[in-house]
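Ticket reopened. Same input as before:
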Amino acid sequence: MNKLDRRKFYIDGDWVDPIEPSNYEVRNPATEESIGTISLGTYDDISLAVQAAKQAFASWSLTSKDTRTELLQNILTVYKKRYDEMAEIISLEVGAPIDMSRKSQAGCGIGHLEGFLAALANLETRWQLGNGDTLIREPIGVCGLITPWNWPVNQMALKVLPALAVGCTCVLKPSEMTPFSALLYAEILHEAGVPKGVFNLVNGEGPVAGASLSRHPDVDMVSFTGSTRAGREVTRDAAETVKKVTLELGGKSPNILFADADLEKAVKRGVFGCFYNSGQSCSAPTRMLVERAIYEQVLEIAKVAGDRQTVGNPAEEGRHIGPVISMLQFDRIQDLINSGISEGAKLLVGGPGKPDGFDRGYYVRPTIFYDANNSMRIAREEIFGPVLTIIPFDDEDDAVRIANDTPYGLAAYVETTDDERAQRVAGKLRAGQVYINGSECGYDSPFGGYKMSGNGREGGLFGLEDFLEIKAVSWP
Ligand code: NAD
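Engineering reply: fixed in the latest deploy. New output:
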């Protein structure tokens, strides 16, 4: 494949050069070779994009719901047309196996469009309070959108679409590691007829281009998805201008397996759910909590499942997992695997190093630890690699206690055939989503975290509401 040369930004409906040239090579995580070149933007590039968004807000914020619905429908049509291209570019830059990229990574782009179209149809922005005052919900203004690399289209769609849908304008700063899916997304929006200035894209690194959005006085809101570390910095940078900040951050989600669970299915779901996307999902079930009565049985099933997880070239079809995103991420994962061993957890599957036959590329061995406890680093820190930690528990109270004993609170999983217990436990878990017996939330359900997993909710009606201000109008 020819190397890509995508050094322009998308500002005010046009492809424009950066103010100062600053090239950045994007690497293919499967080969460590360059895929192509982008530019890294600075405060001045961000400022140009923000001014375009500010100017466009004056008219876009006054458009009707019908106009905005029509635009979303156009985006859906163009997105479907360019679907295969999107799946291929995500596979290349994320290292996601092509089948998985076609089905899930690119699929999110359609799912969220349909979810937001349904939500927009039900959105009420004006009503009367009992005291006679009128309540109006209005677009908040210019939004800075900062996204990560692990599910690039998912994260862009969860921010760009609701912003446009409610009448906001925006500047997107995607991850510098996955810019090509974002540039393609910009082409799709352009072809779908997004008016100039309503959507803008500037590539760049977090501490420069990202921080410029957080600090910019003409940005009214920052919607951020990424690590808890960067989320804190965004919050600090935004404080000076007192802008609204919504955060979707990390997780260390518990997967509670009770003795009455449909074991074979539950364990396999847990193992493959943790390894999916090479473990690079914020809501992955990374702590498997197992009732002692079934502990040995679970280990046997998990061993078979873990050994069956193959690793392979993302360009090839199949159900393998690909590499992780970067050398930095590979090293972090190795450090955590080594910490698990030195803190006394036992290896059931995998371990340090690369899988046999993979000298190039950031490939990690799918790894399962058992006999771990919840104070070990492998139970407390987000590993963001294919590493599962199995921890035994005594009874329901103990399970809930361990599940909630984490600084995070993004997702939780419960496996039991006792519906009453499932309800009861779901009620006690401090997490934004609870998945019971392998169920999946719909695209128009809210997604977000408790505690250090963030604030605000993305997707559906709640995702639209995050981009709205509330105004009370009082009449004499
Ligand atoms: P990251 O925090 O390093 O980067 C995320 C984005 O923020 C990138 O665009 C990056 O350039 C930018 N950034 C970095 N530092 C910044 C700063 N100081 N100011 C402004 N922007 C900055 O995270 P990552 O490694 O790209 O993504 C992995 C993390 O994202 C994981 O912790 C994962 O759990 C989290 N994540 C959360 C969700 C969720 O919905 N909760 C979804 C996906 C990923």
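The chain has 16 helices and 21 strands. The mean pLDDT is 97. Please confirm and we'll close it.
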